[in-house]
User: Which sequence fits this backbone?
């Protein structure tokens, strides 16, 4: 079997790994990477029309965003993913296209390519043995966002049965919203391709971090301040909502933009989350913001409130309108709840206390707080997972070089055959 890394190797973004078995050419994920210089697609992918299958782990753009581009390049094969991933991909791909059009970005595909992709996406149930001719596959809940999955393939290689596990983005810790990843794999794993987003860092204990979050929320509410909480739409928005609703704060909680759409999605797809009933009653206690007019009215009315909206890294979406109103007051706090990539407003805010709104630089006077509600396994959990799966070959991807190196050194010392490919690398196992 030959592995080729078209993206997501020694980096986070545009995940796309090709596996050629004796009879098939398949891809794990097809993501894109948004950089200050534009959009980066998977690199060096040839003969797209000859690919036999694409397996998608989850509906984040760094894992699905290149699907319309692949279709434009002539993709003809089925795309396998969970039902929730397909529904979310519809939402995200259309949103990305829309934002790309507004920003006048060169997208390298058209809206028809999104329609084509959605037509060839096949929904797969988790924990079900399936096959594509001589290639067996099974999806397992990955606990990262609703619908996320790890994928296990089984096939013959030189007369022997071999199996490859692709973790996708994985969280082996239960959260308010999601069950932890299912890591009871049915097969012995020969090759494990693991993510390493937090390959060199541990998360603070979840319960402790939630308490710190609640204490800070309460402190600002008691002072009469409003709170802006930029969130990732899928998963994080609902998680934060669930924590806030337990607090009975007595101020309105507004849910705006994709945070609202993704919550409605979760309620329509109750199987993808732990407790849909709880989320439903929580959401009833929040106020939906249904568009620009309502948002403007809310912003005019100076009432103390909590605003939960996208984008999580402050790069676009309704959060920009809220920032315009609140950046210059100490009567408002901003709570960051997730990873902030380089060159985003979120990172600038953390490191230099300013943001760019409509191209202009603004200093931010709000009190800033950062919380770690990560949807990825931390370093200790990743190590535990690798030991449990106990593969012969370990391929480490989806992480900064430092994170990958840390995990690789650890695994090497335990005698695993470790591979840390770069984008463009190809090798046979
Ligand atoms: Zn992800």
Assistant:
């Amino acid at each position: 079997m030959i592995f080729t890394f078209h993206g997501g190797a020694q980096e986070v973004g545009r995940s796309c790994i090709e596996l050629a078995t004796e009879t098939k050419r398949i891809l794990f994920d097809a993501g894109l990477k948004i950089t200050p210089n534009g959009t980066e697609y998977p690199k060096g992918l040839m003969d797209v029309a000859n690919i036999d299958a694409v397996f998608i782990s989850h509906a984040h753009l760094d894992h699905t965003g290149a699907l319309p581009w692949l279709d434009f390049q002539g993709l003809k094969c089925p795309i396998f993913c969970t039902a929730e991933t397909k529904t979310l991909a519809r939402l995200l791909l259309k949103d990305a296209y829309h934002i790309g059009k507004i920003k006048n970005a060169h997208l390298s595909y058209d809206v028809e390519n999104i329609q084509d992709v959605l037509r060839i996406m096949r929904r797969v149930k988790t924990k079900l043995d399936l096959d594509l001719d001589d290639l067996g596959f099974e999806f397992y809940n990955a606990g990262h966002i609703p619908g996320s999955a790890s994928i296990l393939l089984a096939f013959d290689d030189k007369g022997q049965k071999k199996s490859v596990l692709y973790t996708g983005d994985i969280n082996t810790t239960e959260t308010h919203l999601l069950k932890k990843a299912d890591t009871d794999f049915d097969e012995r794993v020969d090759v494990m391709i693991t993510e390493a987003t937090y390959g060199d860092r541990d998360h603070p204990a979840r319960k402790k971090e939630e308490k710190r979050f609640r204490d800070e929320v309460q402190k600002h509410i008691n002072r009469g301040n409003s709170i802006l909480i930029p969130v990732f739409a899928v998963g994080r928005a609902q998680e934060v909502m669930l924590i806030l609703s337990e607090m009975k704060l007595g101020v309105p909680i507004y849910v705006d933009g994709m945070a609202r759409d993704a919550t409605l999605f979760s309620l329509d797809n109750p199987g993808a989350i732990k407790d849909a009933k709880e989320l439903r009653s929580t959401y009833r206690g929040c106020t939906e913001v249904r568009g620009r007019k309502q948002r403007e009215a809310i912003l005019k009315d100076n009432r103390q409130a909590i605003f939960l909206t996208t984008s999580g890294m402050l790069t676009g979406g309704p959060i920009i309108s809220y920032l315009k109103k609140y950046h210059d007051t100490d009567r408002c706090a901003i709570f960051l709840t997730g990873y902030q990539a380089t060159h985003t407003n979120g990172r600038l805010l953390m490191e230099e206390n300013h943001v760019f709104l409509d191209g202009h630089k603004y200093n931010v006077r709000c009190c800033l707080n950062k919380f770690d509600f990560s949807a990825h396994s931390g370093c200790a959990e990743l190590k535990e997972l690798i030991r449990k799966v106990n593969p012969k070959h370990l391929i480490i991807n989806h992480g900064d070089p430092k994170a990958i190196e840390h995990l690789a050194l650890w695994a090497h010392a335990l005698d695993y055959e470790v591979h840390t490919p770069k984008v463009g690398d190809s090798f046979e196992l």
